[in-house]
């Protein structure tokens, strides 16, 4: 019998807190390892080349509605799962391409470049707020004051979500996204995610109605025009689901890029000083942050027919866990993979996935990181952690919920 692991190994507390020693052990076993027969998945795929192949191979598909229906249709009673299944995340190949082509119009390189002044303006306003929150050396929550708010405001600006409404989203999005984590979810989590999905669907339904009544020069208005002119191009369910996913993904992943990246820099004074001295290095720093501490660590695919990965069989209908976070630390692909090296050459990581489901918001996330990190370091020369960062226990949307920093020296004690 060959080498195998248990899904419990991947889901254990130790791995959730720090998955990288476990990933290193996986790399010693090859590019893929079988799960034990009692586990729900056939393989874990973790080597860079194998992960890259599975994400691009049309034999390995997302778990769409057709796949879920094989086990019954009870999932259709859950608004959160219906929303996920109607979105690009889980759409079958033809529908995915059709909808993606419409939504990527919002994030062409030209449109992202045109957003850069707005990103800088939003960042400067939030840096003012962070300075106020951290005046006189008071600890300030970097995630709450800036990391979560900046990408929320940027994607809100892009879509046309009114500024007054944007603070409403983070708690609902966090609750919605909880069902994406690997492993079983409690019914309490599922019910909360269903409620969040219902509220998000209601919000965007109202926003669509408002834009139909009074169109503006924003992306939601453009999509409404497409939907009403050519209903065969985009159904109402697809429009709503993808607006929710675009908004959710547009700020959760970027917020974690900023939070994870800041901790990496503050724990490495030499790397921080080099970026502070030369802000033009920011793009390479963003790439290494994404490789070293990616916001997303895995995807799941199923085999549409009998196949194999790295010589291991995958029967038709069986699922594989694709560990992009491990692929980014593969010593066969990256020299000294557990070292943070922003000067790393040929840094083609898989933090944004690969193939048809490559993240269409990648250019925007990169721009936000490249523009914001140097401004943050320039604005606060005394920037430091106020306490040890809290635990991160997710593999999907991996980041800090709270990150206390000091942006100024403490006020002198009264005599």
Description:
The chain has 415 residues and is α+β, with helices and mostly antiparallel strands. It has one domain (4-406): Cytochrome p450. 52% of the residues lie in helices and 8% in strands. It contains 18 helices and eleven strands. It has helices spanning 7-11, 13-17, 20-28, 48-56, 65-69, 79-86, 93-103, 109-133, 142-147, 149-159, 169-177, 187-213, 219-229, 236-266, 269-277, 282-292, 324-327, 362-379; strands at residues 4-5, 32-35, 43-45, 60-61, 140-141, 299-303, 307-309, 312-314, 319-322, 384-385, 404-406. The strands form three sheets. It has a six-stranded mixed beta sheet with strand order 1-2-3-9-6-4. α6 (79-86) packs across α14, α12 crosses α13 (219-229) and α12 packs across α14. The radius of gyration is 22 Å and the shape is globular. It starts with a strand and ends in a 9-residue tail after the last strand. The relative contact order is 0.18. The mean pLDDT is 94.
């Amino acid at each position: 019998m060959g080498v195998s692991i248990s899904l419990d190994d991947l889901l254990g507390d130790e791995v959730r807190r720090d998955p990288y020693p476990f990933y290193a052990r996986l790399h010693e076993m090859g590019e893929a390892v079988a799960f034990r027969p009692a586990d729900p998945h056939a393989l874990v795929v973790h080597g860079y080349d194998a992960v890259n192949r599975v994400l691009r191979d049309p034999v390995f598909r997302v778990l769409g509605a057709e796949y879920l229906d094989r086990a019954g249709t009870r999932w259709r009673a859950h608004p959160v799962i219906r929303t996920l299944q109607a979105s690009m995340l889980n759409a079958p190949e033809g529908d995915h391409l059709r909808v993606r082509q419409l939504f990527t119009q919002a994030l062409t390189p030209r449109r992202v470049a045109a957003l850069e002044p707005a990103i800088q303006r939003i960042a400067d306003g939030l840096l003012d707020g962070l300075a106020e929150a951290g005046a006189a050396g008071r600890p300030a929550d970097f995630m709450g004051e800036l990391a979560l708010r900046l990408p929320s405001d940027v994607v809100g600006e892009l879509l046309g979500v009114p500024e007054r409404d944007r603070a409403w989203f983070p708690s609902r999005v966090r609750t919605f996204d909880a069902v994406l984590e690997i492993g079983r979810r409690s019914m309490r989590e599922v019910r909360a995610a269903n409620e969040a999905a219902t509220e998000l669907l209601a919000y965007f339904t109202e926003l669509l109605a408002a834009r139909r009544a009074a169109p503006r020069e924003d992306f939601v208005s453009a999509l409404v025009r497409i939907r009403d002119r050519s209903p065969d191009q985009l159904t109402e369910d697809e429009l709503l689901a993808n607006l929710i996913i675009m908004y959710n993904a547009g700020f959760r992943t970027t917020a974690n890029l900023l939070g994870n990246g800041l901790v990496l820099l503050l724990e490495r004074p030499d790397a921080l000083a080099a970026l502070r001295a030369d802000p033009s290095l920011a793009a390479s720093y963003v790439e290494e942050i994404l490789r070293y501490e990616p916001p997303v660590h895995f995807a799941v695919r199923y085999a549409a027919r009998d196949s194999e990965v790295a010589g291991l069989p995958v029967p038709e209908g069986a699922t594989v866990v694709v560990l992009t976070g491990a692929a980014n630390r593969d010593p066969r692909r990256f020299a000294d993979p557990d070292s943070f090296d922003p000067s790393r050459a040929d840094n083609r990581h898989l933090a944004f996935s690969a193939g048809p489901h490559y993240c269409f918001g990648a250019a925007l996330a990169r721009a936000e990181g490249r523009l914001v990190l140097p401004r943050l370091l320039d604005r606060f020369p005394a920037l430091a952690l106020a306490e040890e960062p809290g635990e991160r226990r997710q593999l999907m949307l991996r980041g800090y919920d709270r990150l206390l920093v000091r942006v100024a020296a403490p006020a002198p004690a009264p005599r």
